[in-house]
Amino acid sequence: MKMKASPTLEDDTITKLYEASLNGNVSALNTLIQRDPLILNRISLSPFSETPLHIASLLGHLQFCEVLLKSKPSLASEADSEGRFPLHLASAEGHTKVVKALLLINPDACFALDKDDMLPLHLASMRGRIGAIQELYRVMPESIHHIIDDGSILHLCVRYNHLEALDFLVQSPTVNQQFLLAKDKEGNTILHLAVTLKQIKTIKYLLMLPEMRTAVNALNKAGLTALEVLDRCPRDFISLKIQDMFNEDGVLQTHTSTSTTQQESARTQENSVSHESKRRKMWETQRCKYMQYHSNWIEEKRGSLMVVATVIATMTFQSVVSPPGGVWQEDTLTGGLNCTTYGICQAGNAVLAYVSPHAFLQFMTFNTLSFFCSLSVVLLLISGLRLNNRPMMGILLIIAFTALTSMGRIYFLAQRLVTPDHIAHRFLKVITPFSTTWMIMCIMVFLFHVCFT
């Protein structure tokens, strides 16, 4: 009977030990150890996968862990059915003080791999446990260099969007450029991954790193740079924002080949290419850049453009109703030599149409052109069409420039129409430099759009 009762008593004692670990009951643990000094040695005979230290570490019961480690230090090196040490669990949950206590007993546990080949530092990085990361790195800084299928520990920080943890690891002394540019099983660098996940803050941080900026054209296994990966993603506001970040930082992607053999060939050709070929490649790159969308200013300034176009339309309409020099107030045959020439000057007709018909015709032509262009701008803005693309932006820009140039021409013609002939030559000397300056400005803006945007 005693032999049958003994296993039952042992099972009951082990159960109480696990219950104490769940609650972090240190007094109950001390009592159980006093009653049975070998109780911790019999843990390995229990059917439970985890040891009480696993449970206490997972739940963050610091004092309970300290008593267990003092009574049986080897518990820190026991693995559960997942191959995880207590340090794995404490690190994943971010119990920094427990992590520190476990490392004091067994610092080599930093290199313990679970069934997924992950170190405690990997689990801490996946959850962004910055305190645990700092403690693990302090004890074993070399552990950050372990690479898994999902990439380096930096890939895990990016994949699970923990920028603070990423910053700490990137700034650590043991991280060099080679490790910073390490790739996962798909050949993606951390910049590829951040762009794929559209993590704006992470991308902005990475583009500030000199090592990352110099390697922005690194290729993954699909032969794509980070910016080319973005082109494969659905286009939305975040994608446009990321593209703007690349452009604002002066990051220029160049087209590269899509296989390792082609990459090596491209490097060889680049070293031996002639000056003319380089220049042709530069212009081709600029052309490709120009065909891409680089800014969302057209949407942001839609209201301002509407106001400008409306003002121009109002001014040109008013010029028709009230032309320079006014209109005849009544029918007359005595309103000057021209009235006699044309038979009659009818009421409501422009006076200057009789006095200077050629100049007045130019005035009305440019006035009509400006009015039509301003209405076209208003139409495009209220049409609901997407304007944040190169073709629509180009059309809108040409129309707006035409409207503004016509307005300038209207001003000078109106000035000329109301200027007496004896000082007209002086007026021409005044307007010539302004007209030339305006044309130069238009040409410069056009060339800037073609070559640099």
Structural summary, described in words:
With 453 residues, this protein is mainly alpha-helical. Among the domains are: 2-146, Ankyrin repeat-containing domain (Serine Threonine Protein Phosphatase 5, Tetratricopeptide repeat), CATH 1.25.40; 297-418. Helices cover 64% and strands 0% of the residues. It is built from 25 helices and no strands. α7 packs parallel to α9 (153-159), α13 (200-207) packs parallel to α16 (237-248) and α23 (357-382) packs antiparallel against α24 (390-418). Residues 254-280 are annotated as: Disordered. Pfam families: Ank_2 (PF12796), PGG (PF13962). Keywords: ANK repeat, Membrane, Repeat, Transmembrane, Transmembrane helix. Its main location: membrane. One of its GO terms (cellular component) is plasma membrane.
Write the layout of secondary structure elements.
Layout: H1 2-23, H2 26-35, H3 52-59, H4 62-71, H5 86-93, H6 96-105, H7 120-126, H8 130-139, H9 153-159, H10 163-170, H11 177-180, H12 190-196, H13 200-207, H14 210-214, H15 226-232, H16 237-248, H17 260-272, H18 275-291, H19 297-300, H20 302-321, H21 337-342, H22 352-355, H23 357-382, H24 390-418, H25 424-451
Organism: Flemingia macrophylla
Domain PGG: 296-413
ANK repeats: 82-103
**What radius of gyration results from the CA coordinates?**
39 Å
Shape: rod-shaped
Largest sheet: none
Overall mean confidence score, pLDDT: 79
Helix content: 55-70%
What is the N-to-C order of secondary-structure elements (H for helix, E for strand)? HHHHHHHHHHHHHHHHHHHHHHHHH
The low-confidence runs, each spanning 5 or more residues with pLDDT under 50, are: 1-7, 252-268, 288-295
Total of helices = 25
SS-based structural class? mainly alpha
CATH superfamily of the domain at 2-146: Ankyrin repeat-containing domain
Terminal CA distance:
91 Å
CATH architecture descriptor name of the domain at 2-146: Alpha Horseshoe
- What is the CATH topology classification name of the domain at 2-146? Serine Threonine Protein Phosphatase 5, Tetratricopeptide repeat
The total of beta strands comes to: 0
Beta content: under 5%
CATH class of the domain at 2-146: Mainly Alpha
GO cellular component, one term: plasma membrane
Pfam families: Ank_2, PGG
Subcellular location: Cell membrane; Membrane
Biased composition (Low complexity): 254-269
